[in-house]
Amino acid sequence: MKITGMDLRKGIVRVKVETVDDLWILKNVIRSDDVVVGRTLRDVKVDGEGKRRLPMTLAIKVKNVYFQPFSSRLRVHGVIIEGPEGYGLKGSHHTLNVDVGSEIEIIKESWSGSELSMLTATSKRWVKALLVATDFDELSIAILYHQGVRYVLDKTLPGIDSRDPESILKLAKTIVKYVLDVVKLEDPEVIVVGSPAVLREYVAEMLSDEVKGKKVFKDSVSCGGRSGIEELIRRDVVKNLLKEITIIEIENVVNEFMELVNKKPERIAYGLNDVRVAVKANAVRKLLVIEDFLSSDEREIIDELITEVESHKGYVRIVPKDSPSYLKIKALGGIIAILRYDLPIELRRELSS
Questions:
Q1: Model confidence over 283-297: pLDDT tens digits?
Q2: Which of 106, 123, 140 represents a domain boundary (last residue)?
Q3: Which of 53, 150, 199, 309 is such that its CA lies 20 to 30 A from the CA of 294?
Protein backbone atom coordinates (compact mmCIF):
# COMPACT_ATOMS: atom_id res chain seq x y z
CA MET A 1 0.00 0.00 0.00
CA LYS A 2 1.21 3.46 -0.83
CA ILE A 3 0.37 6.33 1.51
CA THR A 4 -0.11 9.24 -0.91
CA GLY A 5 -1.05 11.91 1.62
CA MET A 6 -1.57 12.47 5.35
CA ASP A 7 -2.97 15.30 7.49
CA LEU A 8 -3.57 13.88 10.96
CA ARG A 9 -4.74 17.25 12.32
CA LYS A 10 -7.75 16.84 10.06
CA GLY A 11 -7.81 13.04 10.46
CA ILE A 12 -7.07 12.45 6.77
CA VAL A 13 -4.98 9.66 5.25
CA ARG A 14 -4.91 8.97 1.50
CA VAL A 15 -3.78 5.57 0.23
CA LYS A 16 -3.36 3.63 -3.01
CA VAL A 17 -4.07 -0.12 -2.92
CA GLU A 18 -1.24 -2.13 -4.47
CA THR A 19 -1.85 -5.77 -3.40
CA VAL A 20 -4.63 -8.03 -2.14
CA ASP A 21 -2.99 -7.89 1.32
CA ASP A 22 -3.70 -4.16 1.36
CA LEU A 23 -7.44 -4.82 1.06
CA TRP A 24 -7.36 -6.96 4.20
CA ILE A 25 -5.47 -4.22 6.03
CA LEU A 26 -8.07 -1.63 4.96
CA LYS A 27 -10.91 -3.88 6.12
CA ASN A 28 -9.41 -3.78 9.58
CA VAL A 29 -8.58 -0.07 9.51
CA ILE A 30 -11.88 1.36 8.19
CA ARG A 31 -14.46 1.52 10.99
CA SER A 32 -18.11 2.38 11.30
CA ASP A 33 -18.65 6.20 11.28
CA ASP A 34 -15.35 6.85 9.47
CA VAL A 35 -15.64 8.81 6.23
CA VAL A 36 -14.24 7.28 3.02
CA VAL A 37 -13.84 9.31 -0.17
CA GLY A 38 -13.34 7.62 -3.53
CA ARG A 39 -14.19 7.47 -7.21
CA THR A 40 -17.27 5.45 -8.08
CA LEU A 41 -20.16 5.01 -10.51
CA ARG A 42 -23.66 6.14 -9.54
CA ASP A 43 -27.03 6.03 -11.27
CA VAL A 44 -28.49 9.56 -11.32
CA LYS A 45 -31.37 11.31 -13.03
CA VAL A 46 -30.27 13.67 -15.79
CA ASP A 47 -32.78 16.19 -17.09
CA GLY A 48 -34.06 15.18 -20.51
CA GLU A 49 -32.06 11.92 -20.51
CA GLY A 50 -33.56 9.83 -17.72
CA LYS A 51 -31.20 7.72 -15.62
CA ARG A 52 -27.52 7.57 -16.41
CA ARG A 53 -24.60 5.92 -14.65
CA LEU A 54 -21.93 8.58 -14.15
CA PRO A 55 -18.39 8.51 -12.72
CA MET A 56 -18.00 10.77 -9.70
CA THR A 57 -16.22 11.25 -6.38
CA LEU A 58 -18.35 10.59 -3.29
CA ALA A 59 -17.71 10.83 0.44
CA ILE A 60 -19.64 8.29 2.51
CA LYS A 61 -20.05 7.86 6.24
CA VAL A 62 -19.28 4.19 6.77
CA LYS A 63 -21.86 1.72 8.06
CA ASN A 64 -20.05 -1.53 7.29
CA VAL A 65 -17.09 -2.95 5.38
CA TYR A 66 -17.04 -6.41 3.80
CA PHE A 67 -15.54 -8.46 0.99
CA GLN A 68 -17.71 -9.03 -2.06
CA PRO A 69 -18.61 -12.75 -2.33
CA PHE A 70 -16.44 -14.76 -4.73
CA SER A 71 -13.99 -11.90 -5.28
CA SER A 72 -11.18 -9.99 -3.59
CA ARG A 73 -13.04 -6.69 -3.89
CA LEU A 74 -13.58 -4.71 -0.69
CA ARG A 75 -16.97 -3.01 -0.40
CA VAL A 76 -17.43 0.04 1.83
CA HIS A 77 -21.11 0.75 2.46
CA GLY A 78 -22.56 3.87 4.02
CA VAL A 79 -24.47 7.12 3.63
CA ILE A 80 -23.40 9.81 1.15
CA ILE A 81 -22.38 13.03 2.91
CA GLU A 82 -20.67 14.79 0.00
CA GLY A 83 -20.98 14.57 -3.77
CA PRO A 84 -21.70 16.54 -6.93
CA GLU A 85 -24.38 19.18 -6.56
CA GLY A 86 -27.64 18.89 -8.46
CA TYR A 87 -28.32 15.18 -8.11
CA GLY A 88 -29.77 15.13 -4.58
CA LEU A 89 -27.41 12.37 -3.44
CA LYS A 90 -26.77 13.45 0.17
CA GLY A 91 -28.41 11.10 2.64
CA SER A 92 -28.66 8.24 0.13
CA HIS A 93 -26.91 4.93 0.68
CA HIS A 94 -24.00 3.93 -1.54
CA THR A 95 -21.28 1.29 -1.72
CA LEU A 96 -17.74 2.11 -2.80
CA ASN A 97 -15.85 -0.74 -4.48
CA VAL A 98 -12.16 -0.86 -3.53
CA ASP A 99 -9.87 -2.98 -5.70
CA VAL A 100 -6.13 -3.30 -6.30
CA GLY A 101 -5.23 0.01 -7.97
CA SER A 102 -7.93 2.03 -6.17
CA GLU A 103 -7.09 5.31 -4.43
CA ILE A 104 -9.20 6.37 -1.45
CA GLU A 105 -9.16 8.92 1.35
CA ILE A 106 -9.98 7.82 4.90
CA ILE A 107 -11.10 10.42 7.44
CA LYS A 108 -11.37 9.61 11.16
CA GLU A 109 -12.12 11.63 14.27
CA SER A 110 -8.76 10.35 15.46
CA TRP A 111 -6.33 7.69 14.30
CA SER A 112 -5.13 5.11 16.82
CA GLY A 113 -1.48 4.15 16.97
CA SER A 114 -2.30 0.58 15.91
CA GLU A 115 -4.26 1.74 12.84
CA LEU A 116 -1.43 3.99 11.68
CA SER A 117 1.08 1.23 12.38
CA MET A 118 -0.83 -1.18 10.15
CA LEU A 119 -0.82 1.31 7.27
CA THR A 120 2.79 2.44 7.64
CA ALA A 121 4.09 -1.12 8.03
CA THR A 122 2.40 -2.07 4.77
CA SER A 123 3.68 1.03 3.00
CA LYS A 124 7.26 0.21 4.04
CA ARG A 125 7.01 -3.23 2.46
CA TRP A 126 9.04 -2.33 -0.56
CA VAL A 127 11.77 -3.70 -2.73
CA LYS A 128 14.92 -1.92 -3.84
CA ALA A 129 14.88 -2.16 -7.63
CA LEU A 130 17.45 -1.24 -10.25
CA LEU A 131 15.91 0.03 -13.49
CA VAL A 132 17.93 -0.29 -16.72
CA ALA A 133 16.76 1.40 -19.92
CA THR A 134 18.96 0.92 -22.96
CA ASP A 135 18.97 0.86 -26.72
CA PHE A 136 21.91 0.75 -29.12
CA ASP A 137 22.92 4.36 -28.45
CA GLU A 138 21.96 5.31 -24.90
CA LEU A 139 21.91 3.75 -21.43
CA SER A 140 20.45 4.99 -18.15
CA ILE A 141 20.37 3.20 -14.80
CA ALA A 142 18.22 4.33 -11.87
CA ILE A 143 17.23 3.15 -8.40
CA LEU A 144 13.48 2.91 -7.87
CA TYR A 145 12.12 4.10 -4.53
CA HIS A 146 8.55 4.18 -3.27
CA GLN A 147 8.35 7.93 -3.88
CA GLY A 148 10.40 8.22 -7.07
CA VAL A 149 13.70 7.40 -8.79
CA ARG A 150 17.35 8.32 -8.39
CA TYR A 151 19.48 8.24 -11.54
CA VAL A 152 22.89 6.72 -10.96
CA LEU A 153 24.34 6.35 -14.47
CA ASP A 154 23.86 7.86 -17.93
CA LYS A 155 26.04 6.63 -20.80
CA THR A 156 26.30 7.18 -24.53
CA LEU A 157 26.88 3.83 -26.24
CA PRO A 158 28.91 3.14 -29.40
CA GLY A 159 25.98 1.63 -31.30
CA ILE A 160 26.25 -1.47 -33.50
CA ASP A 161 28.10 -2.31 -36.71
CA SER A 162 25.76 -3.86 -39.28
CA ARG A 163 28.77 -5.59 -40.84
CA ASP A 164 29.59 -7.42 -37.60
CA PRO A 165 27.15 -10.27 -36.73
CA GLU A 166 28.48 -10.25 -33.15
CA SER A 167 27.93 -6.51 -32.72
CA ILE A 168 24.74 -6.71 -30.63
CA LEU A 169 26.26 -9.37 -28.37
CA LYS A 170 29.37 -7.21 -27.82
CA LEU A 171 27.20 -4.20 -26.98
CA ALA A 172 25.18 -6.28 -24.53
CA LYS A 173 28.39 -7.30 -22.74
CA THR A 174 29.36 -3.63 -22.42
CA ILE A 175 25.95 -2.75 -20.98
CA VAL A 176 26.08 -5.66 -18.53
CA LYS A 177 29.49 -4.48 -17.29
CA TYR A 178 28.06 -1.04 -16.49
CA VAL A 179 25.05 -2.60 -14.75
CA LEU A 180 27.19 -4.95 -12.65
CA ASP A 181 29.33 -2.03 -11.46
CA VAL A 182 26.17 -0.32 -10.21
CA VAL A 183 24.86 -3.55 -8.66
CA LYS A 184 28.03 -3.84 -6.56
CA LEU A 185 27.56 -0.31 -5.23
CA GLU A 186 23.79 -0.28 -4.72
CA ASP A 187 23.00 -3.95 -3.94
CA PRO A 188 19.41 -3.94 -5.31
CA GLU A 189 17.03 -6.81 -4.64
CA VAL A 190 15.71 -6.95 -8.20
CA ILE A 191 16.74 -5.65 -11.62
CA VAL A 192 14.38 -4.56 -14.39
CA VAL A 193 15.78 -4.43 -17.93
CA GLY A 194 13.89 -2.33 -20.46
CA SER A 195 15.09 -2.39 -24.06
CA PRO A 196 14.12 -3.26 -27.63
CA ALA A 197 13.62 -7.01 -28.12
CA VAL A 198 16.94 -8.63 -29.12
CA LEU A 199 19.16 -6.48 -26.94
CA ARG A 200 16.82 -6.94 -23.96
CA GLU A 201 17.07 -10.72 -24.16
CA TYR A 202 20.87 -10.70 -24.34
CA VAL A 203 21.26 -8.28 -21.42
CA ALA A 204 18.69 -9.99 -19.19
CA GLU A 205 20.16 -13.46 -19.81
CA MET A 206 23.72 -12.33 -19.07
CA LEU A 207 22.63 -10.52 -15.91
CA SER A 208 20.71 -13.56 -14.66
CA ASP A 209 23.90 -15.61 -14.96
CA GLU A 210 25.96 -12.99 -13.11
CA VAL A 211 23.68 -11.86 -10.26
CA LYS A 212 22.73 -15.08 -8.50
CA GLY A 213 20.04 -14.61 -5.86
CA LYS A 214 18.59 -11.50 -7.50
CA LYS A 215 15.52 -11.59 -9.71
CA VAL A 216 15.88 -10.10 -13.20
CA PHE A 217 12.69 -8.86 -14.89
CA LYS A 218 12.28 -7.83 -18.53
CA ASP A 219 10.05 -5.19 -20.06
CA SER A 220 9.79 -3.48 -23.42
CA VAL A 221 10.59 0.20 -23.98
CA SER A 222 10.84 2.13 -27.22
CA CYS A 223 14.11 3.87 -26.36
CA GLY A 224 17.00 3.90 -23.91
CA GLY A 225 18.21 6.63 -21.56
CA ARG A 226 16.10 8.58 -19.11
CA SER A 227 13.13 8.58 -21.48
CA GLY A 228 13.23 4.78 -21.31
CA ILE A 229 13.28 4.84 -17.49
CA GLU A 230 10.23 7.10 -17.49
CA GLU A 231 8.52 4.76 -19.93
CA LEU A 232 9.21 1.79 -17.65
CA ILE A 233 7.53 3.59 -14.77
CA ARG A 234 4.54 4.60 -16.92
CA ARG A 235 4.15 0.93 -17.87
CA ASP A 236 3.31 0.12 -14.24
CA VAL A 237 6.64 -1.54 -13.50
CA VAL A 238 6.12 -0.50 -9.85
CA LYS A 239 2.81 -2.32 -9.49
CA ASN A 240 4.06 -5.37 -11.39
CA LEU A 241 7.20 -5.57 -9.24
CA LEU A 242 5.15 -5.66 -6.04
CA LYS A 243 2.96 -8.37 -7.48
CA GLU A 244 5.94 -10.44 -8.66
CA ILE A 245 7.79 -10.06 -5.37
CA THR A 246 4.69 -11.14 -3.44
CA ILE A 247 4.39 -14.21 -5.67
CA ILE A 248 8.07 -15.06 -5.09
CA GLU A 249 7.66 -14.66 -1.32
CA ILE A 250 4.62 -16.95 -1.36
CA GLU A 251 6.44 -19.58 -3.44
CA ASN A 252 9.38 -19.53 -1.02
CA VAL A 253 7.06 -20.17 1.93
CA VAL A 254 5.31 -23.00 0.05
CA ASN A 255 8.67 -24.60 -0.81
CA GLU A 256 9.74 -24.39 2.84
CA PHE A 257 6.40 -25.90 3.88
CA MET A 258 6.75 -28.83 1.44
CA GLU A 259 10.28 -29.58 2.69
CA LEU A 260 8.98 -29.72 6.26
CA VAL A 261 6.14 -32.07 5.26
CA ASN A 262 8.71 -34.82 4.83
CA LYS A 263 11.41 -33.76 7.29
CA LYS A 264 9.52 -32.21 10.23
CA PRO A 265 5.73 -32.58 9.99
CA GLU A 266 5.38 -31.36 13.61
CA ARG A 267 6.61 -27.95 12.38
CA ILE A 268 3.69 -27.33 9.99
CA ALA A 269 -0.10 -26.98 10.11
CA TYR A 270 -2.67 -26.94 7.32
CA GLY A 271 -6.43 -26.79 7.06
CA LEU A 272 -8.54 -24.42 9.12
CA ASN A 273 -8.90 -26.53 12.27
CA ASP A 274 -5.22 -27.49 12.46
CA VAL A 275 -4.07 -23.91 11.90
CA ARG A 276 -6.51 -22.57 14.51
CA VAL A 277 -4.93 -24.88 17.08
CA ALA A 278 -1.43 -23.73 16.10
CA VAL A 279 -2.45 -20.07 16.35
CA LYS A 280 -4.03 -20.74 19.75
CA ALA A 281 -0.67 -22.12 20.88
CA ASN A 282 1.12 -19.00 19.55
CA ALA A 283 3.15 -21.34 17.35
CA VAL A 284 2.64 -19.80 13.90
CA ARG A 285 5.66 -18.12 12.32
CA LYS A 286 4.39 -17.89 8.72
CA LEU A 287 0.81 -18.04 7.49
CA LEU A 288 -0.58 -18.24 3.94
CA VAL A 289 -4.31 -17.87 3.27
CA ILE A 290 -6.00 -18.09 -0.14
CA GLU A 291 -8.06 -15.01 -1.01
CA ASP A 292 -11.30 -17.06 -1.21
CA PHE A 293 -11.49 -17.07 2.59
CA LEU A 294 -11.81 -13.27 2.67
CA SER A 295 -15.28 -13.53 1.12
CA SER A 296 -16.35 -16.86 2.65
CA ASP A 297 -18.49 -17.80 5.65
CA GLU A 298 -15.25 -18.34 7.59
CA ARG A 299 -13.96 -14.79 7.00
CA GLU A 300 -14.47 -13.71 10.63
CA ILE A 301 -12.45 -16.70 11.84
CA ILE A 302 -9.75 -15.93 9.25
CA ASP A 303 -9.68 -12.28 10.36
CA GLU A 304 -9.10 -13.38 13.95
CA LEU A 305 -6.33 -15.79 12.95
CA ILE A 306 -4.51 -13.21 10.83
CA THR A 307 -4.79 -10.56 13.53
CA GLU A 308 -3.47 -12.95 16.17
CA VAL A 309 -0.50 -14.07 14.06
CA GLU A 310 0.42 -10.48 13.14
CA SER A 311 0.14 -9.38 16.78
CA HIS A 312 2.96 -11.83 17.56
CA LYS A 313 5.11 -10.54 14.66
CA GLY A 314 4.21 -13.45 12.40
CA TYR A 315 4.46 -13.28 8.61
CA VAL A 316 1.08 -13.29 6.80
CA ARG A 317 0.31 -13.23 3.09
CA ILE A 318 -2.97 -13.46 1.22
CA VAL A 319 -2.58 -15.73 -1.82
CA PRO A 320 -4.35 -14.39 -4.95
CA LYS A 321 -5.98 -16.74 -7.44
CA ASP A 322 -3.41 -15.94 -10.12
CA SER A 323 -0.51 -17.04 -7.90
CA PRO A 324 1.27 -20.21 -9.10
CA SER A 325 0.93 -21.61 -5.57
CA TYR A 326 -2.82 -20.97 -5.25
CA LEU A 327 -4.08 -24.43 -6.30
CA LYS A 328 -1.50 -26.22 -4.16
CA ILE A 329 -2.56 -24.27 -1.05
CA LYS A 330 -6.24 -24.69 -1.88
CA ALA A 331 -5.73 -28.48 -2.01
CA LEU A 332 -4.29 -28.27 1.52
CA GLY A 333 -7.45 -26.64 2.86
CA GLY A 334 -6.75 -23.11 1.67
CA ILE A 335 -4.57 -22.21 4.64
CA ILE A 336 -1.08 -23.38 5.64
CA ALA A 337 1.33 -22.44 8.41
CA ILE A 338 4.98 -22.91 9.28
CA LEU A 339 5.47 -23.11 13.04
CA ARG A 340 8.02 -21.64 15.43
CA TYR A 341 8.46 -24.93 17.26
CA ASP A 342 7.38 -28.56 17.06
CA LEU A 343 3.70 -29.05 17.92
CA PRO A 344 3.08 -32.79 18.38
CA ILE A 345 -0.17 -34.32 17.13
CA GLU A 346 -1.13 -35.39 20.66
CA LEU A 347 -0.80 -31.86 21.97
CA ARG A 348 -2.86 -30.52 19.06
CA ARG A 349 -5.67 -32.88 20.00
CA GLU A 350 -5.59 -31.61 23.57
CA LEU A 351 -5.65 -27.98 22.48
CA SER A 352 -8.53 -28.57 20.05
CA SER A 353 -10.74 -30.18 22.69
A1: 999 999 998 887 788
A2: 123
A3: 53
